[in-house]
Amino acid sequence: MVDIARGPEVKRKKRIRQTIYAVVAGAAVILITVGVSRLKPAAPTVDGQTVWVDTVKRGPMVRQVRGSGTLVPEEIRWIPATTQGRVERIILRSGAAVSPETVILELSNPELQQSVLSDQLAYKSAQAQFESRKADLESGLLNQRAAAATVEAQWRQAVLQLEANEQLAKDGLVSELQLKQSRSQSADLENRHKIEQKRLDIAAQNINAQLAPQQAEVDRLRTLYDLRRKQLDDLKVRAGIAGTLQVVPVEVGQQVQAGTNVARVANPKTLKAELRIAETQTKDIAIGQKASIDTRTGIVEGTVSRIDANATNGTVGVDVTLPGALPPGARPDLSVDGTIELERLNNVLYVGRPAFGQEQSTVGLFKIIEGNQQDGEATRVNVKLGRSSVNTIEILEGLQVGDQVILSDMSQFDAFDRVKLN
User: In the beta sheet, which residues pair with residue 263?
Assistant: First the structure.
């Protein structure tokens, strides 16, 4: 056979055909790339059994806050040592029931015992001196009374003599000179009587004034002696109130100073709850609000009585008084949970509180739009939250009554706008 040479026209057509094929293939690749880029990413799958789903409702909502704490006695007394001493004997230990006169421990202080004896002697000596001085003054007063009585008797005798001489003078039996002498003597004795009487009154009034300094010294020494005796008696440390002995923070042989707390007694019959509540939840708490305290063996109602002015480690202390009968087993230092009722809201849209989302904020929640929790699809929606409670929160925008939303932590799906449930 003889090969037939191809002409230039054939080669040109071949090149045109190859170029068309290349352009078509390139266009197909571009179209496929654009189409794939516009496809939505596949929705991740979530196990419906592991998520918490709640339905949006409308109606009344009770706003509450919750915290944990302990039961503590309302009446607690630390008992200090009134003077320094050495712990000789501890009679009772923690947990013992005590009355106001119950002796908890005994201290010793030899110097105080010596001071008591010295003060006792000083007081008795001052008292004896006072009595001696009082007797001297009273004796002097008696002498003054006797002198006054003597002058008064002489004056009255002179008055009688004057009356007799005046009668005799009328009969001419007594001279005028004798009558004048009788009158002069009577007047002189009357004047002396008045003077002695004034001296007697002054002497009587001056007795108390002269005894006052010594009386003050006696009172001072008696007060000091009584104080020392009380300090000596206080070496036997008593409870002071009826209740339960909680702590005896000293040991036998220990030296304690005046003012050192050596025991603590509490009245277990009147307890209150001391709760610690997150400071972000305390802005609406007010004194007088109702509260419920769970003691694990029962729930008792109470009232907020005190709120700490400052926060500590992110929490605020709130005291709840418990006027009613306490459940069995309630005792000091028992761990409890407390719920405080802030307010009751009527006709509000609400749902269970999501894992993430504070009140008065906007969060993204997954709302079920197809199927159900076991077989469905959820899409992310922005939800504006309002006031919150312990387990519920108010919905302001983004959801309607009957909507089902996932409240569990879905932060691992932040990159997706929808998820599939199975």
Answer: 79
